Amino acid sequence: MNGSAVKDIDGPILKSKSLEKQKDLNNIREEPTDVTTVTATAQVQTGGVRFEPEEKATGSGGPSSNDSNRKTGKRRDVLDNWTLSCRKYEQEAIRDAYQRAKEQPDRKEGMDLEHHTEFVLISGGSGTGKTTLAETVRLDAQDDYGHFVSGHFDQLQKSEPYAAFVQAFSGFVTSTLTRGEQDIKIMRRAINKAVGQESKVLTDLMPEMKLILGPDDGRLEKINNGAEAINRFKFVMRSFLRAVASPSHPFVILLDNLHWADKASVDLLVALLKDVKIRGALFIVTYNPDYEEGSKLFDDMLSQIIETEINLTGIDVANLSAKTINGFLAKVLDRSVDETAALADELYPKSNGNLLRTREWLRLLQDKSMLWFDEDAGYWVWDMEEVRVELGNVDDILRERLVALPSAVKDMLKVASCLGKRLDEDLISHLLSGPIYTYFQEASEKGIIRSGHDRSYYEFSHDAFQDTAYNLIPEGERERFHRDIGRRLWKSFDLNELDKYIFVLIGQLEIANCADMSSRERRAIADLLLRAGERSVLASSFLSAHTYLLEGIDFLGPRCWDEDYALSLDLYNAAAEVAYINAQFDCVEMLVTEILKNAKNTKDTYRAQATRVYALGSKGRPAEALQIGLQVLKGLGISFPDNPTRKDVLGEMKKLKKLLKGNSSEWLLRLPDMEDPNKLAAMQLLNLIFIYAFHTKLELAPLIGFKMVKLTVDHGLNAVSCIGFVIYAICLCM
Fold first, then answer.
1. Residues 6+ apart with CB under 8 A from 203
2. Residue 469: CB partners within 8 Å, gap ≥ 6?
């Protein structure tokens, strides 16, 4: 099948699984009521489906109101009847995609059977209910003993590589750990079988994965080729998802706010979507086209997937019409559409049919006793005159609710808004004193934050609340606010916390104005950026690593080689290596030149020279790469004849035979691991220049292989020892 499989949505409305009726207004999540019949008209637009609503308002009427119970009697929440049923066809489309994922052929039935990855793309403006719609199949997945995991991209926290994936897969870890030891063992076996010895790729990205897999051996072969390193990372992530997803135990992953995603995350998403060996997985993504910042990445993603074997279900979620809003009010307030018409006429021009805005106005009206439940009459009533006076801008309403909170709770929300959508109690406790969890509960009671589905965390109820809390910080003070957060965290972290929250800390300092910092503090930040770059390399996020390392060099300043030689050497070397991996060869040359100019001794140039060898080889200049490589090896105590002959080859082969005589292959396998960093560097370099010698100085090539064997026998095994033995074996056969 060529092209993306676009699913038309038509036919009768199917009954959804009944969601437990939410009695707490604070848990309501932009869910419209069953007041419209939505007709899905299939229109191919970037591989998607546009939904055109056909409105049909319903509601029940009631007698005239009185205000005798305005402030008396048992309080009821005005949004108790708020449900998602007006998005029937959209919900049905998502359930259909989930069902297709469940019906994919299982691996045991044969991997060659055709199937297509299921991908649901929900686009729409802020406050239209995208996230709530995306969670349609959460209970379905749980009922099928599968997993529904979610992660979101954050506008203020873009520094952590693959942040949304880390969040989602961490949720998988939490979910798995609650299912008992037997399930953990089954999952451990499946993942270890799938990823083999490269489980450290997973645990480097998500340390909590060790709770399932157990401790890793701490070793992972270093790959100096950027494309190979990225491909290995994607392969491990694909293998992981193949292991944890199956049609019998579906795996649904929701990635929220794709418009704030980084390029590495989008590339990983595309790689997972293209993998036809992943069975029983459903990918759901939400996207707001109003943010131009993410439009290019989004278009690039669509162009990559639209020609592949992917079932793409596109859903556009728009604001509701005036007629639908009136029907919605009639349903919520248990009145007729005629009785709610005047209220709808007042609300609609302010909300423009936006669900979030409509919800917040109803909440405000009830909080101010302009809307109340008449216990005697048995329905909701309101004071129309007061409503007309009260209605204002929704942003002002959100701000007013936050301003009315106690100062300690407001301070907590301002800090939390700088750290991301999810609220981390441990992190915030480093910044503020007082009962942080109590502050969470107070904010939750006002509907500003809510607990996650597994009750293990709190998060802002909507991006609008996070934005409003952030806007409580005066614009002219925000850079200082972020800098203060960064400094406090930095001073209070121990080494483990620093490693855990390194990207949060860097994110704060990147926003802050650091112009007036002391040179000592700037050097300390440069060291943090070096750590962040190294962590990004472990996650195969090389573009992020490149950014961090160059920022670190900028923080060092022009006198860096005099003020902190060791840190300067580390930063420049790391930046040169990552620039090579990213094929930024001009940058490599610039950084290496700077190192060679400032190095205090020849030994300090070896790492930079090795990077130059890699870069020259990649640029198609093998003779130059070989020459520099031999110079570096000479500095490491390894030399070769300038013009080797056949006699030299035969002489070295004879010595090697004598060295190996009487030793078995079992003896070789029992050799210890090579630990000397200079010998390890030499082995990597010998492995690299062998191919250059083979093409430009053939007589030297076997001598390189022999030297690798001798280093292995004398100093231990490493990842490329086998290459030397293969070269030796080939020479023996000639």
1. 209, 210, 213, 216
2. 402, 413, 414, 416, 417, 448, 460
Share of the chain above pLDDT 70, in %: 83
CA distance 443 to 410: 9
Q: Which tokens in the block code for residue 16?
A: 């959804």
- Residue 728 one-letter amino acid: Y
Residue 548's closest CA among 563, 562, 565, 527?
527
Cα 226 to the chain's mean position, in Å?
Answer: 20
Rounded alpha-carbon distances, angstroms, from residue 166 to 71, 188, 207, 209, 456:
47, 18, 10, 10, 16
> What is the rounded average pLDDT of the residues 66-78?
51
The answer for residues whose C-beta is within 8 angstroms of residue 202's C-beta and 6 or more apart is 191, 195, 209, 213, 236, 240
Among residues 69, 82, 72, the alpha carbon closest in space to that of 379 is found at 69
Residue whose tokens read 């954050």: 154
Domain 5-10+38-52+87-317 superfamily per CATH? P-loop containing nucleotide triphosphate hydrolases (3.40.50.300)
DSSP-assigned letter for residue 251: E
pLDDT of amino acid 34: 30
Instruction: State the amino acid at position 187 in one-letter form.
Output: M
Q: Alpha-carbon Rg of the chain, whole angstroms?
A: 31
The set of residues, in sequence order, having a beta carbon less than 8 Å from that of 177 and lying 6+ positions away, is: 184, 211, 212
Please classify residue 342 by burial: count the beta carbons closer than 10 Å to its beta carbon, then call 0-12 exposed, 13-18 middle and 19+ buried: middle
Sign of CA dihedral 539, 542, 543, 549: positive
> Is residue 346 within 8 Å of residue 388, measured between CB atoms?
yes
Q: Determine which helix (DSSP H) or strand (DSSP E) holds 450, and give its type and residue range.
A: strand 449-451
Question: pLDDT at position 357, please?
Answer: 84
Indicate the pLDDT class of residue 85, thresholds 50, 70 and 90: low
Contact 431, 482 (CB under 8 A): no
Exposure string over 202-222, b if 16+ CB within 10 A, otherwise e: bbbbbeebeebbeebeeebee
Residue 141: count other Cβ atoms within 10 Å of its Cβ.
21
Which pLDDT belongs to residue 14? Answer: 25
User: Per-residue DSSP letters for 622-647?
Assistant: HHHHHHHHHHHHHHTT----SS--HH
Residue pLDDT, tens place only, 707-721: 999 999 999 999 899
In Å, how far from its chain's centre is CA 539? 11
Q: What three-state secondary structure class fits 522?
A: helix
Q: Decide if 599 contacts 618 (C-beta within 8 A).
A: no
Q: What is the dihedral of CA 627, 629, 633, 636, to 10 degrees?
A: 130
119's tokens: 């991908």
* pTM metric for this prediction: 0.73
How would you class 637 by CB atoms within 10 Å of its CB: exposed for 0-12, middle for 13-18, buried for 19 or more?
exposed
Alpha carbon distance 384, 65 (integer Å): 11
Q: Which helix (H) or strand (E) holds 5?
A: strand 5-6
Query: Do you know the residue count of the chain?
Result: 734
Secondary structure of 383-443 in the HEC alphabet?
A: CHHHHHHHCCCHHHHHHHHHHCCCHHHHHHHHHHHHHCCEECHHHHHCCCCCCHHHHHHHH
Write out the two tokens for 292: 């131009």
